[in-house]
Amino acid sequence: MTKTVAETQQFMRDSLPHYYDESLIAGNIIDREAEELTRLSASAYDVLDQFYIGTATWGLARWEKIFGITTDPTKTYEQRREVLRGKLRGVGRVTAELIENVASAYANGEVDVTPNIAGYTLTITFVGVFGVPAQIDILKETLREIIPAHLAIDYVFRFFTYAELLDTGKTYGEIAVTGKTYEDIYNRRF
Fold first, then answer.
1. Contact 102, 89 (CB under 8 A)
2. Residue 179's closest CA among 164, 190, 163?
3. Terminal-residue alpha carbon distance, the chain
4. Distance between CA 35 and CA 92 in Å, rounded?
5. DSSP calls for 17-79
6. How far apart are CA 152 and CA 160, in angstroms?
7. Residue 54 burial (C-beta neighbours within 10 Å; 0-12, 13-18, 19+)
8. Is the N or C terminus of the chain more exposed, i.e. has fewer CB atoms within 10 Å?
């Protein structure tokens, strides 16, 4: 973890003999060196962050290149990380668990995969989130790449029902006056 300039200065002062405490020259040298050491430390940690998808920022383009993904600078870092995590999780023998793992990376919630072998279909149900995930098109593309071509994929989304709204103790009118749209309520964004 990167220390602040003040923490670095204090550490450096504590490491010197006490007769330097009153020296303006020694104090100035410590102050300047502490600033530079703090900058160097922050830069080193920033480079280290690029080695992990979860913390990468400017290094995401390199990760995307490794996975063969076209970089889309209009997407947020987190959206780009979701795509990378999905690609990373999509490696190995295709099982329901693998598909759940990949889909949950995009959905930011629990996903249930139900195979129907006789019907050559997989049903992917988004149980941990309401509405359609923001990156559903990329998820569909990724799953199509890893799921065998002879299997059809059905997607089932969960939406907030009127009965569930009543269970919250709020009425539609109470929520609507806050400026939330019907779509916001339907996708439980209130």
1. yes
2. 190
3. 36
4. 47
5. -GGGTT-HHHHHHHHHHHHHHHHHHHHHHHHHHTTSTTT-STTHHHHHHHHTPPP-TTS-HHH
6. 27
7. exposed
8. N
Q: Do you know the residue count of the chain?
A: 190
Return the bridge partners of 5, or none: none
Burial category of 109 from C-beta neighbours within 10 Å (exposed 0-12, middle 13-18, buried 19 and up): middle
Residue type, 43: S
Full-model pTM = 0.51
Q: Rounded CA gap, 34 and 8, in Å?
A: 6
> Per the structure block, which two tokens stand in for 7?
């923490």
Q: Which amino acid is at 139?
A: L
Per-residue pLDDT 10s for the chain (190 aa) are 678 999 999 999 999 999 898 999 999 999 999 999 999 999 999 999 999 999 999 999 999 998 888 899 899 999 899 888 877 776 667 788 888 888 888 777 788 999 888 889 999 998 887 888 888 888 898 888 888 888 899 999 888 777 877 788 877 778 778 887 777 776 766 5
φ/ψ of residue 152, rounded to 5: -85, 155
**Cβ contact 99:113 at 8 Å:** yes
Q: Which residue has the tokens 């080695």?
A: 51
Looking only at the bridges linking them, the beta strands covering 121-126 and 152-156 are parallel
- Is residue 154 classed as helix, strand or coil in its secondary structure? strand
